Amino acid sequence: xxxxxxxxxxxxxxxxxxxxxxxxxxxxxxxxxxxxxxxxxxxxxxxxxxxxxxxxxxxxxxxxxxxxxxxxxxxxxxxxxxxxxxxxxxxxxxxxxxxxxxxxxxxxxxxxxxxxxxxxxxxxxxxxxxxxxxxxxxxxxxxxxxxxxxxxxxxxxxxxxxxxxxxxxxxxxxxxxxxxxxxxxxxxxxxxxxxxxxxxxxxxxxxxxxxxxx
Length: 214
Ligand SMILES: N[C@@H](CCC(=O)N[C@@H](CS)C(=O)NCC(=O)O)C(=O)O
What we know:
Blueprint: E1 2-6, H1 11-22, E2 27-31, H2 42-47, E3 55-58, E4 61-64, H3 66-76, H4 86-120, H5 126-149, H6 160-169, H7 183-192, H8 196-199, H9 207-211
Parallel strand pairs: 1-2
Antiparallel strand pairs: 1-3, 3-4
The structure holds glutathione.
């Protein structure tokens, strides 16, 4: 059976679980304790030499990097989440890259410095945090416009790009990133968060972290 190594606070790992759920796949979810260093063990480094989640083991097919994993799972299952049509697929690829590299990178800077650095008692990098905020101020209007022009990120059809964005934006509340100024993103996001593929994972991202009163 497919094994997914992840952690509930990891947006890339949640992306993989959302896709596996959307594809209706059976899988075993293995929580990797990052704070406990489980991702640095000899055993885990055999799965991913850079010691990061997510990783999948699909009956011996070991893969890391969330976007490669989601493409593999969708392609293997001949899913319209990753369309066969060249132009449609290129559009999905374009938005996936935009989301992961630009939006994800910026959310990561803000999240790390506002939440994880104080929590781990490591110095906050104010410059990096401000860069993250500024980048989001450039990138999120582009996404908002795209979701005004079309129902989904890559056009009329729900795709891997939407799932990538949904997972990437999950930490916004705990990172105090205000999405209310992007009404189309809010509308799109609220609708997708009701879907089974999402609620099968959790009701609300970061529930446990909030309970820890970070
Ligand atoms: N580009 C990777 C990013 C993976 C990543 O950064 N994972 C984080 C959790 S969100 C991790 O494993 N961090 C542990 C570490 O770097 O020590 C992907 O999309 O899969």
